[in-house]
Design goal:
Layout lengths: L2 E6 H18 L4 E8 L2 H5 L9 E3 L2 H4 L8 H10 L1 H6 L11 E7 L4 H16 L4 E7 L6 H14 L5 E6 H4 L6 H21 L16 H8 L4 E10 L23 H17 L13 E8 L6 H15 L4 E7 L5 E11 L3 H17 L7 H13 L6
Parallel strand pairs: 1-2, 1-4, 2-3, 4-5, 5-6, 6-7, 8-9
Antiparallel strand pairs: 7-10, 8-10
Helix pairs in contact: 1-6, 1-9, 4-6, 6-7, 7-13, 7-14, 11-12, 13-14
């Protein structure tokens, strides 16, 4: 699936920068173009892989290039004022070749939280392509204002994108680790999972063709209908000796030996269970999923048909959904088998309720409860639960 990436704010820009770095390191090819937007000049200068001409400072007259602090309304106003300027940043990107846009932002800060919904809405108005959101939820250790901003931003963004993928920093922090020191690792975990998903179906080896191809339409159909999505991933490193009938040399055609079918099948089914029951990008009850997409990657000889089909059937039982898509993503130069599962339209999300309660307390203690009413917070929770009033 070919994407145009748009990073908004400090977190969004860093994640897009990491996407570009990872694509080059792994020789993948699914990013059609990338732009980073910010109200802080210093944050744009920190980026290494987004081309300089695609680092767009906006709101310079009012923000003076120093950012908006945690003021989401200020950021939204600046984005509205400079909306045409933001869109013009895409003029030299071949958007006609892209399958979708991905708007990336941290939902706790100021610029990303406020401007991401504005940009998503503008993209939707101009282009006839899906506009997806990728939002990062703040950790519990971060200030209350981040939870407050996340609640308000979530409600707005989920209504302006075709689907919102979420990553919860709190879930991925190690014991005793602070967010500030973990950003690089957390971004790496997020980017690796999404890259496997979006790069599936992009042919990198002309001599290897998937038996069940995952193209952009499979991802689009899984994400259709709006709401919130999460991703699970697990992998198994393959043996490097010939005792199991496999060696790394096989990857490059130096041996015709095939792996044991039962072992190949078990590796896939075990990875599928770990991907589903392990840490998701956003913890949730997967049985609340409306749809799912299962991507199995690895050397062609290890992609057991039985293992792939059994995994798909098992996930169908776990989600209680009949709309489970899947396929294989053969990678001749890989030394592992991996399973990535996209759970779309999830509704049972305890983390959302935690943020809602914390945001309400923060609003009450700061005297802003009139601005962020309990009714509005209930709407926030309900929007993720039943999918009502979401963009279709």
């Amino acid at each position: 699936m070919r994407l145009v990436l748009l990073g908004i704010g400090q977190a969004g820009g860093k994640i897009v920068d990491r996407f570009l770095e990872y694509e080059r390191q792994t020789e993948q090819d699914f990013i059609e173009g990338a732009v980073a937007f910010n109200t802080a000049r210093a944050d744009l200068k920190e980026l290494s892989h987004v081309p300089e001409h695609h680092r767009q400072l906006f709101g310079e007259v009012d923000a003076k290039g120093h950012g908006v602090g945690a003021d989401t309304e200020f950021a939204a106003d600046l984005a509205e004022q400079d909306a045409q300027q933001l869109i013009r940043s895409l003029d030299d990107i071949p958007t006609s070749r892209a399958d979708a846009f991905l708007v990336v932002a941290g939902l706790g800060g100021g610029t990303g939280s406020g401007a991401a919904p504005v940009l998503a809405n503008e993209l939707d108005r101009i282009y006839e392509k899906p506009v997806y959101g990728l939002g990062v939820l703040p950790a519990s250790e971060e200030e209350d204002v981040f939870a407050y901003n996340a609640v308000r931003s979530f409600r707005t963004l989920v209504n302006h994108v075709d689907n919102l993928l979420l990553f919860d920093n709190d879930t991925w922090l190690k014991s005793g680790e602070e967010v500030t020191e973990a950003h690089d690792r957390l971004n790496g975990e997020l980017v690796r999972r999404l890259s496997v998903l979006f790069n599936a179906g992009e042919v990198t080896d002309e001599n290897v063709v998937a038996e069940s191809v995952i193209d952009s339409s499979e991802i689009i159909n899984t994400l259709r209908g709006g709401g919130v999505s999460t991703i699970g991933h697990a992998s198994s490193t393959l043996p490097t000796d010939d005792s199991s009938g496999f060696s790394l040399g096989n990857l490059f055609g130096s041996s015709d030996n095939e792996p044991d079918e039962i072992e190949a099948m078990n590796r896939i089914t075990t990875a599928a269970r770990k991907a589903t029951r392990g840490r998701l990008t956003l913890p949730c009850d997967v049985s609340s999923s409306q749809r799912a997409l299962v991507v199995t990657s690895g050397p062609p000889q290890w992609l057991s048909r039985k293992g792939i089909e059994q995994s798909r059937q098992w996930i169908e039982e776990e989600t209680e959904s009949m709309e489970i898509r899947g396929g294989d993503d053969p990678r001749s130069d890989s030394d592992r088998v991996s399973v990535t599962v996209l759970f779309a339209g999830v509704t049972d999300i305890p983390r959302i309720e935690q943020l809602r309660e914390r945001a309400l307390k923060a609003a009450e203690s700061s005297g802003d409860s009139d601005d962020l009413s309990e009714t509005e917070l209930d709407d926030f929770a309900d929007s993720s639960v039943d999918g009502s009033d979401l963009k279709r």
